[in-house]
Amino acid sequence: MRDNMGKQVTLQPITQENESECIRLQPREDQLTLVASNADSLIHATKEVTSKPHGIYAGNEMVGFILFDNEIYTDGYYWILRCMIDGKHQGQGYGKRAIQEVIYMLQERSDCRQIRVSHVPHNVAANALYKHCGFQETGELEDNGDIILGYQVRG
Ligand SMILES: CC(C)(COP(=O)(O)OP(=O)(O)OC[C@H]1O[C@@H](n2cnc3c(N)ncnc32)[C@H](O)[C@@H]1OP(=O)(O)O)[C@@H](O)C(=O)NCCC(=O)NCCS
């Protein structure tokens, strides 16, 4: 998939080689409370056996981070647990491309019926991004009040 500038947008696993590049990425200052730091997310990822951390690349440059289930989670869904685009790379379609790429990969799995994501209620950008990609609010909330959205892959 390509962004507006023609750079190819790909998801590549986080390894020892690109881990420090990932940790350096940060959202905008006013977004710091909306998402955990990438360092935190990488620690979290080691405890979540179904999920795998990936860098979001525009060409050869890592512009964002996404953590999503690579196998079905115990509740029967595939979750996108974290997604961020570095502040200086936002607004260029990378978030949208990354989510579309995850949908593309997961819809190949015969056991994937619904992809889920949640966000804090006032995260307007995340809500618009996910709806833009075909997610709908499920009407369910996480225990902490976060809004849950789902993308229906098959019935
Ligand atoms: C949410 C986030 C990942 C969007 O990434 P992005 O690359 O800037 O988004 P895109 O350029 O792909 O935008 C895609 C769509 O998302 C929506 N969107 C993105 N930023 C938005 C904003 N600031 N306000 C409202 N809608 C926004 C729009 O619908 C946009 O489509 P459009 O430009 O055609 O209107 C990015 O803002 C971010 O990293 N935020 C901080 C971390 C975060 O909140 N993560 C989500 C936690 S669940």
From TrEMBL:
Q: Domain of life of the organism in this record?
A: Bacteria
GO molecular-function term, one example from the UniProt record:
acyltransferase activity, transferring groups other than amino-acyl groups
Q: Does the keyword GTP-binding apply?
A: no
Sorted alphabetically, which SUPFAM superfamilies does this protein's record hold?
Answer: Acyl-CoA N-acyltransferases (Nat)
Asked if the keyword Nuclease belongs to this entry, the reply reads no
Task: Check the record and name the PROSITE patterns matching this protein.
Answer: GNAT
Q: Which UniProt keywords apply?
A: Transferase
Task: Tell me where in this chain the N-acetyltransferase domain is found.
Answer: 9-154
Mention any Pfam family matching this sequence.
Acetyltransf_1
InterPro entries per record = Acyl_CoA_acyltransferase, GNAT_dom, N-acetyltransferase
Q: What is the protein's name according to its record?
A: GNAT family N-acetyltransferase
Question: Which organism was this protein described from?
Answer: Paenibacillus amylolyticus
